[in-house]
Design brief:
Radius of gyration of chain B: 22 Å
Number of strands of chain D: 9
CATH superfamily of the largest domain in chain B: Cytochrome-c3 Hydrogenase, chain B
Order of helices and strands of chain D: EHHEHEEHEHHEEEEHHHHH
Number of helices of chain B: 16
Number of helices of chain D: 11
Oligomer: heterotetramer
Largest sheet of chain B: 4 strands, mixed
Helix content of chain D: 25-40%
Strand content of chain B: 15-25%
CATH class of the largest domain in chain B: Mainly Alpha
Largest interface: B-D, 104 and 85 residues
Strand order of the largest sheet of chain B: 8-7-6-11
Structural class of chain B: alpha+beta
Helix content of chain B: 40-55%
Chains: A alpha/beta, B alpha+beta, C alpha/beta, D alpha/beta
Distance between the termini of chain B: 28 Å
Distance between the termini of chain D: 63 Å
Strand content of chain D: 5-15%
Number of domains of chain B: 2
Shape of chain D: globular
Structural class of chain D: alpha/beta
Amino acid sequence: MSFEPKIVAFLCNWCSYAGADLAGTSRIKYPPNVRPIRVMCSGRVEPTFVLKAFASGADGVLICGCHPGDCHYMEGNYKTARRIPLLKKMLKQLGIEEERVRLEWVSAAEGARFATLVKDMIAKVKELGPSRREGGFDE
Amino acid sequence: MTRRITIDPITRLEGHGKIEIFLNDEGNVENAYLQVPELRGFEKFAVGRPAEEMPRITQRICGVCPTAHHMASTKCLDDLFKVDPPQAAKKIRELFYSIFMFEDHTLHFYFLGGPDFVVGPKASKEERNIFGVLGKVGLEVGQKVIGIRKKTRDIMTEMAGKVIHPVFGLPGGISKPLTKELVKTIKEVAREGVEFSLFSLKFFDDLVLKNKEYLDLIKSDIYTNRTYFMGLVDEKNSLNFYDGKLRVVDPEGKEYLKFPVKEYLKYIDEHVEPWSYIKFLFLKDVGWKGFVDGKDSGIYRVAPLARLNVSDAIETPRAHEEYDRMYKTLGGKPSHLTLAFHWARLIEALYAAENMERLANDPEILHPNVRKIPTATPEEGVGVVEAPRGTLIHHYKTDKRGIIEEANLIVATQNNSAAINMGIQKAAKALIKEGKVDEGILNLIEITFRAYDPCHGCGTHLLPGHVPLEINVYKKSGDLLHSFRNH
Amino acid sequence: METIKVGVYICHCGVNIKATVDVDKLTQFSSDLPPVSVAKSYIYLCSDPGQELIKKDIEEFGLNRIVVASCSPRMHEPTFRKVLRSAGINPYCLEMANIREQCSWVHDDPVTATQKAEALVSAAVAKARLLEPLEEKEIDVIPAALVIGGGIAGIQTSLDIADTGFKVYLVEKQPSIGGHMMQLDKTFPTLDCSACILTPKMSDVGNHPNIELHTYSEVVDVKGYVGNFQVTIKKKPRYIIEEKCNACGLCVPYCPVEMPDPFNMNFSKIKCLYIPFPQAVPSKYVIDPTHCRYTLKRECKQCELVCKDLKAINLKQKEQLIQVEVGTIIVATGFDTFDPILKPELGYGLYPNVITGLEFERLSSASGPNLGDLLIHGKKPKEVVFIQCVGSRDKSLGNEYCSRVCCMYTAKQAHLVREKIPDATITIFYMDVRAFGKGFEEFYDRVKQEGVIYRRGNVAEVFKRKNRLIVRAEDTLLGQPIELEADLVVLAVGMVPSKDSPGVAQLLKLSQSADKFFLEAHPKLRPVDTASDGIFLAGCCQGPKDIPDTVAQASAAAARALTLIAKGKVAIEAAISVIDEEFCSGCKTCISLCPYDAISFNAEKGISFINEALCKGCGTCAASCPSSVIVARHFTTEEIMAQIEGVVL
Amino acid sequence: MSKPKVAFYWCASCGGCEEAIVDLAEDILKVVEAVDIVFWPLAMDIKTKDVEAMPDGSIATTFINGAVRLSEQEEMAKLLRQKSELIVAFGSCAHLGGIPGLANFFDKKEILETTYLTSLSTSNPQGILPQEETRVKEGILTLPKFYDRVYALDQVIEVDYYLPGCAPPKDLIINAVTAILEGTLPPKGSVLAPSKSLCESCKRNESKPEKLRIKKFFRPHEVIIDQTRCFLDQGLICVGPATRDGCGARCIEGNMPCRGCFGPTEKATDMGANALSAIASLIDSQDEDEIKRIVDTIADPAGTFYRFSLPKALIPKKRERKI
């Protein structure tokens, strides 16, 4: 059976989660590989969550927040915008390709964009293949 | 029927060690192996780290002599970043290093290697530890040992943040200058150190040299290997721990090589055996001839005796007197007597203490400027010091940002690992006859490698307890024929 | 330690979910999850019987955590929280799994969609079992409101609140209230005189016992939180002592300085000691310090000397700061008209007879420069061209929105031209005519009846040929280029956010939408609320509106504000962040990150501290706490970690 | 009544932890009087037999330092677990994997090849690698298996208490031993050190501004380090905010930023991620490219934030590239 990546998506309540809802109400289809988790603000997304997702078997992590300037909490998305680049750099050192983590801005009106984004990410992660988990003792 | 004796652990080198002794049918030693079942891979995981972190990472190779690694690494960074530290910084580093050498050597003599002599090579295990030593030297001296160790280590803590894994080394200097108050303390402790070193030598005289049995032991062929010697010397070919050129003398004591450490790859190589995780160093041009001594074998030795063998003098007066006296007593230079390492160590401790006093009294030591910010682009650097256990070399290659791409570490004990192996073979062959093994014999074997004070000697003599030795004599079938343990 | 009993309820949502997700399989799956005591599915959980089902189970099985797998929590979380509350368990013990918007509606394959639904439910259950009951705290509300902006929106809001008997502080940056509406001539589609309908409301404001009016003033600082704001108002010096000035006007003739009259869009001149317009409220003079000789170079004190009896003039007046405390704030800072200089091809600023719609209003107004006669260089224009959508629906300018009033005011202005110059040729270039409001379409018809020519087309440029204005355009219906001569070109400029709005956003921590108008809390369900509790929006600061919509929204904002004030208490967000004092080392990392300045350093305890009333629960601080000792309630690290494990199932 | 039996054992360690005990100086004698030390050190072959011979749980407390890198270390740890009432993970390596844990950036093959084949001074023409079994003419020599990754002690056995630090400071050792002797130990699983982060006791925290913002990160050798100001305020990465207190701020006294040897604080899930998040959040920019530039001034994030704790991270070892 072909590789079906698991992608954990952290969506901010006010923009991106609403955007994903809009994709639904507009019946815009995308593959079910993406598994959303709602947070109030993308600024709530701890790097720990991303590591946890990979440790638990995710092959990719998508973080969506309001567009710069539109944050419901004014600057939460900027905080994430500062953390993710450093996190990616660190993940790379741990053998997790940067492409497996994406930070995107999705507004409440961008249902279609959310769907496209998800499709695109699934495709890219499929190319990368599964993110291998480190084994236990080697005997 | 081959029998097999296992001594495990003898003591720890890089990690701990294990001796396998094979007996032939007559019960005489066929062969003996010193195995080091320990590997952590520092040379690999240094890669990708920022170079300036190396002094604080590589020192985790050894918590007994972290200062040696810290300093070799820091000097390597000076070279890597092409920066010459301010005089004050250099002097503070050397001062710090002298304190360390004094402390480490003293610790070894009284706590670790010493007990073999102090309480006697054949003494029972219960005595062969610091408490046994205390018994011999009296509690008051014992307190003194503990006391001076504490004082020196407190000073080092104040100078470098920590004494177990100091943090102050940086390319181009150190992280902070000295304070008047501290220098005052250092002067006092230095004076005390000199006194104490002289006392130790006197004590060694009375206890060992005046005791024919010991002296014979030292001079006996069992503990003799004719090898090359390597160590750092200054421009006057005098003993130096912190800086200088590497000098190698042949078994006759003639200068065989003298080179700046940057060229070490031209002259020394590491040999790999499938049965040990430790690598064996040898002189490239002489070549690896197996575990044999003599002029045609590339095996060389480092550490106290080696250092004295390669140097023409010691710059500090008292230490130099002792230096002369030692060679007179042992019948000339170079000395190949493994057990003479103990004596040499005490002389070095005296030198370290005297040097400590000299530097502490240098006014420049208080200069506030102890850093020079590097500006050049890093590429490659090599740094060396004489660790208590011998020559220690750090060698890094980095990218333009100073991220390590390749690291090569020549760790003190490795230099001696071939010699130690050889010594054990020799001792075992000489001491175990017709399968007869007793605790005394085991101690006598143990003495060989403890003379080299291989890293991690620590634990073994520290507390009531012992080096747990066990000898199992097996039939070829592997069934246990006879078992002996010393605990 | 209570034992966690989770109930899972799966909604079919008719066929919306059931058609794609195998609800029976999902129910079975859910009931097999460890902490789940009961799992059921129902056709419409949000219906009364659906809610009853949950309530009954809560009592029967003693459930204390509820998972509802249905539509988006953004849809029905409030509904089901009420269910929990009414069943006597804490509403925050609810977790929803969105298996409609983010599952059944976006996936086709029932098998994989059901698998995903299972993952979503297991995640919800994993979180639910960790959910903590949260207590909704209440704080007192200061029974007073601050209204920023004295246009029609601010006026209406103030009156509504004041009439209910509560204190209102109305702050207007101009010397008089009235705003843009005061400048308009007639209003569409009814053609009432704008001033005539506005001035009564203005004087009501002026005389209202509950309204404290601060004109020529600005809000410079706002501290505090819903129910409890401390506001600082800066009163600019008007060099007239308001209490004393009786608007006799004796001083005016003595003022030697003339300046363009801003109220008349600079078509006429006034003294720099002036009353903005006859019906100004307050009816007090003001001296323009940018023109007055005294304020500029300490020369001339004529006016002060003249007003010797009242001593109402004080040229040395300084600005003053006034502190007020209010429970709620209504933002009614209005709009600016688009500046057509940004579309040079239209020749505005280059040719005096290219004017904006607002300028037209003044020209045609009976109180305007020519007392109502529509004159350009003293002559009545014969060829009049209107151009619509100037600065609106224009991607090149980044103004994609429709300003909603231009179509109608253009129609009205065309009508006024027809009225004043019966033989004029009137052409209107338009993209589409949007006549959506009450009586709009009828009015539009009427104007067409009056012989106004509507040409669908984009104007390429306006230029001069032999002293005549030429309007070159493409008639998109005929699909051919045309050129028209014109004596007067009126640009139907749209609305843009007031240039003060960034400052206001900063001050009140308001979000702005892409068009830079203030962002409402929810486009449909909370159109006058903002993300900042206790702060509401009225009028065009939220987006272009005509007068009736503005007034309606103003009253709505007043009503929202009044619900706060009238109740006297307000529940503050329960799902906020708190710092665990036992483990906080006071590293201060969080302090600089809080957008609401809700975190402060307690020096004597050596720890950081979150003001619960200021915290909005975004959780940014929790995400950055190096010791993980900030608990983002309802979205705790443990809860989300559990969710992650569940969701990758 | 007989003294409680105490044992010491080291895994992949440097000996610094033993030194720390020697540094107890006079106090060491107190300890010695109070307990009966049954072995120190223990050697593989014999101790296996010795310890096997003992009744389960007959050792009151075993202190184990060092990480688990080799098979014999795991085997011994398991055996000691069985024989001991309490196991105390002593020092950073046993607690978190420690500096040797940085080896988890590489796999076994890479490490062996670098060490024995490609390292600059190695002459190994036949490409010999150390073997678990070697037949020499007299018989067979064995070496313990070198694992593919480093493990912290509690990843191979259950650990009752942790004594953090590289090396653990004197006062914490004394407190721990006293607590054991007096039976005043906290709940099992506790780290025998304060629960807050280092900032709690760091003298420089006062100088730390409440609204700290970082425009550029410096490496320690790039600037003259102020001896009193908060390191982060100087743009130097200090993991103190994410590191457990109790070391006495020794590195800070040495005018170097905290390196994190005490490991995560009580509530933290993943030390590296926590430190990363805190420090990244302070970056003074909202512009994507500028943020990237600033981030690039951090040379080795993983090695910095997981310096002592990689084996205990959520992603404890570098993942293999896709084949």
